[in-house]
What we know:
Shape: elongated
Order of helices and strands: HHHHHHHHHHEEHEHEE
Number of strands: 5
Strand content: 5-15%
Number of domains: 2
Distance between the termini: 109 Å
CATH class of the largest domain: Alpha Beta
CATH topology of the largest domain: Cytidine Deaminase, domain 2
CATH architecture of the largest domain: 3-Layer(aba) Sandwich
Helix content: 40-55%
CATH superfamily of the largest domain: Cytidine Deaminase, domain 2
Structural class: alpha+beta
Number of helices: 12
Amino acid sequence: MLDSMRNTLLDRWWRQIRHLGGPNPPANARPASGRTAGFGERAARLDASPADLEFPRATRATALDRLPDAPHGTPFPSTGPHGHRQRMRERFLERGPDGLADYELLEMLLFLAFKQGDTKPLAKALINRYGSFANVIAAPADDLARLRGLGPHAVTAIKLVQAAAVRSARAELLDRPVLNTWDRLMDYLTAVLAREKVEQFRVLFLDTRNRLLADEALARGTVNHTPVYPREVVKRALELHATALILVHNHPSGDPTPSQDDIYTTKDVQAAATALGIALHDHIIVGNGKWFSFRKTDMLD
């Protein structure tokens, strides 16, 4: 009789455990092979959901996941990264941004998009994919949107950081003679153009005191060519009542050395502007961490 009762209780206990573990729980559950175990290792899969970057779906629905946190006073009150986000915020406020690695800054930025969960694997995967924190921030929104691990909230947060950086740098130029704030000008142009994947031709329109009236992108091209029409540049200058110009474009290759086409375009725009009393102060080519100035190399008449 006692043996029969014991066997019945054991059988019922075993069925309950199997029920908690879900149908056919894997016996050897382990992290997915695509998981990023370290910063220098292969990136986590960016075609999966943020939760899938840690463990596959089959291993997340286990008995341990369904058990509530243990009461306080036990060795491990929580089986998750308890208080991790709060500790990150406190460290940021105490030490400043220099106290965090690039992936940690990106991890915290992703807090804005994901209200819970571990964003560290996703942050490391993004940096592995694009090469650096700065490249992630500058990545095209449509490129980021194609990554299933992000979603619209994360893409918006990332691009807001880039927009804030560009506007902050631009604010340093306003109401000041641009030619007297060269370092600020280069900071601004670098933020706008240094990591663009295709050529972009911009014009800085200046007033009589060389203050910035407008910065406009007049043309976008391919990885190594942008069609520029001098008449369009001059027409826009007249509409804005600009008296001076600075031409700017980028070389996605990272080498700002001017091509022969760049030299011809500069001369054509200068001739058209001069005919209408508009000065061409410079043509600046932006590379990756480098720049070239026609004025500073005496290539303008």
